[in-house]
Amino acid sequence: MAQITLIEAVTQALAYEMAHDDSVVVLGEDVGVNGGVFRATQGLQEKFGELRVLDTPLDETTIAGLTVGLAVQGMKPVAEAQFEGFIYPMMEQIACHAARLRHRTRGRMTVPAVWRAPWGGGIRAPEHHSEANEHLFTNIPGLRVVLPSSPARAYGLLLAAIRDPDPVMFFEPKRIYRQYKEEVPDDGEALPLDVCFVLRDGTDVTLVTWGAQVKEALEAADALAEEGISAEVIDVATLTPLDFDTIAESVTKTGRCVIVHEAPRTAGFGAEIAARLMEECFYDLLAPVQRVTGYDTHIPLFRLEMKYLPSVERIVDAAKRTLAVS
Fold it and tell me: Does domain 3-183 have CATH number 3.40.50.970?
C-alpha cells in the first residue's frame, strides 16, 4: 500500500466518492484545469469531466450560493475556497441559508454540501492566506466544523463529510499538506464525525488540540515524557458538534488540561472547551485550564510567523504550569 500525504488523501477521497456517487460535484476557482492552488483536485476534471469539476469565476459569494442551490436540488457539491481568508464573502450564504434550511423547512430540505478551505499559517504567505478562523463557524447552529490532522483522518473525515446530509466546513491544515506520509487504504471507509480521537494515553495532563497543532502537541508529549510527565493527547477533529465526553473523561483522569490552537486567543474555540470544563469538571480539575494560542492580532509575515504559532516549547511550559499547582 502506497504512503500518501494529506493533500493526496484529500484528492483520493474526492476521487473515490465521485466514482461511486454521480451526485458529487466539485467546484471552485481553478479546481479544474489547474487542479486547485494546492493541487487538491489534480486530475479530477480529466477523469470526471467539466460538468462535475467546475471552474468558477473569482467570486466567492457566487460559489457559496451555487453550492447551496445544487445541494437543495439533490446534488452533493464540494466547494473550494482557495484559502480560508477568502471565505468571508461565503459566510452569508453559509450562515443564513445552508445552516438554516433543515430548521426553516422543518426537515423537508437538507443541504448536503461541503466547503473545503486550506487553513492556517506556516507557509510564508500573507495574512489572508494564513488565517485560522474556524471559531467563527462554530457558533452557527446547523453547521459542522471539521479539521483533520493527518492523511488518514483527512481521507476518512472528508468521505464522511460528503456523505453527511447537512453542511460541513472542512478546514485543511495546509502547513502539513505535504509534511509527512502515511498509509491510507483507498477503501471508501469513512471515519466518524463528531468524535474526538485519543492519539496518546497519559495520566498527568491532557493536551487538547486540532489541525496542524496536533503535531506540536505530540512532540510536546514526547518532550514531557523525557521528564517523567505523562501527557494524554486528544485530536478534537470535529469542533462542532463537540465530543465533549471524551475530553471530560480524559481531564477527569489527569486533573489538568492544556488547550492548543493557532486562532487568536480571545473567543477562540479553546475558550468554549475551557468554559465547559469549568462548568462540568470543576471538582476534577487540580489546576486552572491553560490555553496556548495565537495572539489577538493578524498573523504576521513570515519573519515572525513561527513566533505567532503555538510551539512545542510553549505547550511544554503550559503543561508544567498546570503541574506546578498542587
Answer: yes
